[in-house]
Amino acid sequence: MNNSLWKDAFDRLISNKLSLFGSIYILFIIILALITPLIAPYDYAYQDLDLGPSGPSALHWLGTDTLGRDLLTRMMYGSRVSLMVGFLATMVALSIGVIWGTVAGFSGGKVDTIMMRIVDVLYGIPFIIFVILLMVIFGRNLILLFMAIGAVEWLTMARIVRSQVMSLSKQEFILAAEAMGVSRVGIIYKHLIPNAIGPVIVYATLTVPQIMLLEAFLSFLGLGVQAPLSSWGLLIRDGAVSMEEYWWLLIFPSLAFSLTLFSLNFIGDGLRDALDPRTSDS
Amino acid sequence: MFNLILRRVVIAIPVLLTVITLTFLMVHSAPGGPFDEEKAVSAEVLAKLNERYNLDQPLSTQYFDYLSGVLVGDFGPSFRYPGRSVTELISIGLPTTFELALYSILFALCVGVLAGVLGALRPNTALDYIPMSTAMIGICIPSIILGPTLILVFGIWLEWVPVSGWGYMPGDKILPIITLGTAYAAYCARLTRGGMLEILNQDFIRTARAKGLSETRVVVVHALRGGLTPVIAFLGPAMAGLLAGSFVVETIFGIPGLGRFYVEAAFNRDYTMILGSSIFFSFLIVSFNLISDLVAAALNPKLRD
Q1: CB–CB of A68/A221 below 8 Å?
Q2: How do the domains of chain A map onto residue ranges?
Q3: Residue of chain A nearest B287, judged by CA positions
Q4: Measured in Å, how far apart are chain B's first and last C-alpha atoms?
Q5: What is the CATH code of the structural domain delimited by A3-42+59-277?
Q6: pLDDT tens-digit profile of A6-31?
Q7: Is the minimum CB–CB distance between A136 and chain B shorter than 8 Å?
Q8: Is the confidence metric ipTM above 0.95 for this complex?
Q9: Is A179 in the B-facing interface, judged by CB distances under 8 Å?
Q10: Global pTM?
């Protein structure tokens, strides 16, 4: 039964052309990011100051920046940082949100009320400001960056999981498990989480581009990743500074980043249609 | 209705208190004092500075002093601009940022509602597909890409509009408004389309049509009121997003507003300015959320319970 559900979902997903395109592109970017240290044509910090900024050529496919660094190399290394922040922060948000939502939904009563009131209050707080504050005060540390972003993105996840768990826990098979003496922890892990996972996967997929955007936004303001490291936000910032003479420095990183955001959103939409047909908007 | 207002205001208070306390504690737990980076200040001068900014008091005293200041709109002095208060700096930047946000939201509403209504009236035709796919692109392209690209194409290559500024040259407001407003126009279009499609299928619309009202009247007077509810509920969060977006747009276009002051304060480590404007931003965002919730409830009785 379980298998056919996932197979159905997979079939539906790849029959949607946009999400198929998105999946292929993201897979391509992820593989490229993973093998970057093996195939990158140059070192990401290597400066060819004699060459300086040059347009696309046979030696430098996407050109070089104002310090003579190879743009393709910097984009490939940048994708590692951007993707890592996106996926790791989503994992952090996912873990906190799922645990919080399951406990609240399963406990019910006072515990639930208190836990969800906390979520309500946190929801009202403009977190972008807190992430900026964290970056300013504790330095522009990459690990801290995704921990901070992940720690603020779990609220919606907690709400989704809670409502799933609430509706599931009233169903007979949970009652049966309870009657047979399965422990609470056992019910949560064996029955609730596997059944609530569809909407969670959809929301997680849509969280990744949001977080990548937040990282790019911070790096663009100079508050995120710092040179000589690179990330897409940082490259777009550098490109915007020198675009008057060297347009390629803006256009290529922007293109790579936009396509990634598009793809992740397409995959998210496709997954929603595939896993959770009820909530899809026609 | 009164109960709803009361409940929302009651929840806004812990939110604001949490914000003030958290920002205060974060700024005060920053490694190193605000004057540490200055070149070798003598111990005597440092003590004087600390005394002047009340940094020699215990943390709890400072906190309650600060809190009572905030309640009357006093965010204390700026560390980096001696002789100026944070409140003064905020009031210099605010009008520009507010103008930018207002124009952008108007742009978003005009374009978005129009596109959404057109799509809903002719679903699944070119009039629907083209604006809606454009909207998808608009949502996905972030302002950090849209802004520089617009400058490159329309400012540098075509030379149609100035590349930066706000009110210095005719037309220099166009690109910032488009950059900030596009994503919201796209969201408005999708929300309007969804809301209108739902409303247009309801019985009272059929009644209105059956009694011979003109299509324009049916759409504008009867359907829009309900169809726009999701858009209005979205305006509060949108306003919050616009303020955060102003950080980027004001930086890109060199606009002297609150967003740019904030980013500059972040770079200069002007702690009182960061603290003050963080709290001020949070207050604005919480208020906008509150107002849009209440307006949505006033328009749609179903949301009141």
Answers
A1: no
A2: 3-42+59-277
A3: A124
A4: 9
A5: 1.10.3720.10
A6: 777 777 777 778 888 889 999 999 99
A7: yes
A8: no
A9: no
A10: 0.82
